[in-house]
From TrEMBL:
GO terms for molecular function: metal ion binding; nucleotide binding; nucleotidyltransferase activity; tRNA binding. This is Poly(A) polymerase. Residues 195-245 form the tRNA nucleotidyltransferase/poly(A) polymerase RNA and SrmB- binding domain. It comes from Maritalea mobilis. The lineage of its organism: Bacteria, Pseudomonadati, Pseudomonadota, Alphaproteobacteria, Hyphomicrobiales. The keyword Metal-binding applies. Signal peptide: none annotated. Residues 37-156 form the Poly A polymerase head domain. Its cofactor is Mg(2+). One of its GO terms (biological process) is tRNA processing.
């Protein structure tokens, strides 16, 4: 059986086609007559043999017609994007987005004005890549008007029609090109798309910061984004998206990906971002403001930038002190980044000193991951009971006793701390 036949058979036998919600959506919208078809990622991933879950559909029916049919059938329908032709059908715990066939009437590089239609090929032509213009009918047969199935099997991320024209419809497609290459591409990016992306890269400046960060974050979340980032750097696009890292380099990303795979670390886009920017507070603040990162994302980067490295020779006691007084996530980010870098270096230069440092950092990492965050057992009420007046002096006493408690490996209990306070004349 050829690769193509195997792919078509995977589609025909896809388990998602048999799910009750999917069957109900096909039935609601005359799937047997081809009036509604599954489209996009669910089809692409099934062909590739990749994990696939959420089902999106395209239909010849207008949003109002979809809403009307759903109401008569007692199916909950939400007009989530009705101006763009999208209705969300709710089947218990599963939702399916149904979008009316469309064609672009006007574009401005950021948004498109669309008209609804009934022509499947015209709907396919307005999409971005050939691998996303694949449709599956209710019986599992594939509709491929733009010959995208072979691009899909070849893992060739290929723009539909003229690459420059597709990009000028929405400049976010420049970043989507690299995102899809990161997830599904093989070898070099398709030459026409790469050339058009490089030529039109300044269009990225016209996009909102939120759209740029959302798309770049998806690139960083790919199983291995290193090749996509390399081509983004080569074309000058990475410098537009991430000028803070332009002179810093992105070589660390290779070690991060290797450590994730070998040590079973969870993919973390923000940690990967940390690896390709300098640990400088001003640069981090500039990045967070420019890309409009969330408060939590910005805080994590800022704490990492201000956190001193944890050297391999650091004692366990000093690691504990750092964890208590500092930020656990920032410390782990520092340790893991250095650990990944040393592991990568060891592959080119194996020696006992490097191995010892890696072993020490690995212990620090495990210690930080298991950090119990002990609670200081003394408070203001305890000192008031000893006759200490509330105020600045009480704060000084508590700080001194807390420092003693930390220096003693968090061992003294409340009674021991009060005894210490009395013996030192603090109370």
């Amino acid at each position: 059986m050829t690769e193509l036949n195997e792919a078509l058979e995977r589609v025909k036998q896809a388990s998602w086609l048999k799910r009750p919600a999917v069957r109900a959506a096909f039935e609601l919208l005359d799937g047997g007559q081809g009036h509604v078809r599954a489209v996009g990622g669910i089809v692409r991933n099934t062909i590739l043999g990749d994990p696939a879950s959420d089902v999106d559909m395209a239909s010849i029916f207008t949003p109002d017609e979809v809403l009307d049919r759903a109401a008569k059938a007692g199916i909950k329908a939400i007009p989530t994007g009705i101006e763009h032709g999208t209705i969300t059908l709710v089947f218990g715990d599963e939702t399916i987005e149904v979008t009316t066939l469309r064609q672009d009437v006007a574009t401005n590089g950021r948004h498109a004005e669309v008209a609804f239609g009934t022509d499947w090929e015209e709907d396919a032509k307005r999409r971005d890549f050939t691998m996303n213009a694949l449709y599956v009918l209710a019986d599992g047969s594939l509709y491929d008007p733009l010959h995208g199935v072979q691009d899909c099997l070849d893992r060739n991320v290929h723009f539909i029609g003229d690459a420059a024209a597709r990009i000028e419809e929405d400049y976010l497609r420049i970043l989507r090109f690299f995102r899809f290459f990161a997830y599904y591409g093989s070898g070099r990016p398709e030459a026409g798309g790469l050339k058009a992306a490089a030529k039109l890269k300044d269009g990225v400046k016209r996009l909102s910061a939120e759209r740029v960060w959302a798309e770049f974050k998806k690139i960083l979340a790919a199983p291995d984004p290193s090749r996509a980032l390399l081509w983004m750097r080569t074309t000058g696009i990475l410098a537009l998206v991430l000028p803070e890292g332009e002179k810093w380099g992105m070589d660390a990303i290779h070690g991060i990906v290797a450590a994730e795979q070998e040590l079973k670390w969870k993919i973390d886009p923000l940690f990967r971002l940390i690896s390709i920017i300098p640990p400088q507070a001003d640069k981090v603040n500039q990045l967070a403001e420019r890309l409009k990162l969330s408060n939590d994302e910005a805080a994590r980067l800022q704490k990492w930038a201000m956190q001193p490295p944890i050297a391999p020779e650091t004692t366990a006691k000093d690691v504990d002190k750092s964890l208590y007084w500092g930020d656990q996530t920032a410390i782990l980010d520092r340790i893991c980044l250095d650990l990944a870098g040393l592991r990568q270096k060891l592959k080119q230069d194996q020696n006992m000193e490097l191995m010892a440092k890696i072993g020490a950092l690995h212990q620090h990492m495990e210690r930080a991951q298991a950090w119990p965050s002990p609670v200081f057992p003394l408070g203001g009420k305890d000192l008031i009971a000893q006759g200490v007046e509330p105020g600045a002096e009480m704060g000084k006493i508590l700080n001194e006793l807390e420092q003693f408690w930390v220096d003693e490996d968090f061992q003294p209990d409340q009674a021991a701390l009060l005894a210490k306070a009395k013996s030192d004349g603090l109370v």
